[in-house]
């Protein structure tokens, strides 16, 4: 690509360099965009076509610096569970203020928490927000502020909601480092709650592709979208997919309630207890509205399992 062509590309700023932000940065580069990936320390391996940028987006000054000159800003920042209720509103205030000043469009990576307990009802974008947990109510309040800012013309905002992440690079998930290292080493494979219930998982690459699509389509602004998510199956069925590939049974331990185990320490589980309903009732995400609107489809779970096993094999081999 010529220097002139690079200079005419619009800048897309990705806030947060966890699995979602990093995968999104790669996807945006693949689509031909100039990309800035923002983290408090700007550390991590070099990514082709990505500028790493250090800023604390929980402050007004840091958010303005991180989003300067960007046409589209993607909010993929998350914090530790015990810090969410305190810090996520502060981050929202800074980021929303920055895009209100600059005029950049804002694409927010969101959770299912605002829906609260659904008693097995499939979640669509029309599902009422009935959260009773602290973190669920906090997320619902943040989302209403985003949508209000859009309705009032102060910012251009769109929200993309995802189920639990799974896929290459995903560690801190109920289908992440608590599962795949044990799968490949013969160690303990952790299941949470009732693993026979349907449970939606969103491939991290579908998260990235969905957010990038929202960033490229302003006609989708001003609402919530469910990012492409494969049809729900039980976690036990996913275990069976893995066993079929490995030719050996898994050593599964199931936690019927939130208590410390393996990578989930006491501090995390104390905060996660109010969200444990996600593993004791079906969690079914319907992303058909997004798929129809943008002509996309989620990655089949079989392909997701294959890619995740391959990534964890390499991760374990590299120590």
Automatic annotation (TrEMBL):
Pfam families: Epimerase. InterPro entries: Epimerase_deHydtase, NAD(P)-bd_dom_sf, NAD(P)-dependent_oxidoreduct. GO terms for cellular component: cytoplasm. It comes from the Bacteria. GO terms for molecular function: aldehyde dehydrogenase (NAD+) activity. Residues 16-220 form the NAD-dependent epimerase/dehydratase domain. Gene3D superfamilies: NAD(P)-binding Rossmann-like Domain. PANTHER family: NAD(P)-BINDING DOMAIN-CONTAINING PROTEIN-RELATED (PTHR48079:SF6), PROTEIN YEEZ (PTHR48079). This is NAD(P)H-binding protein.
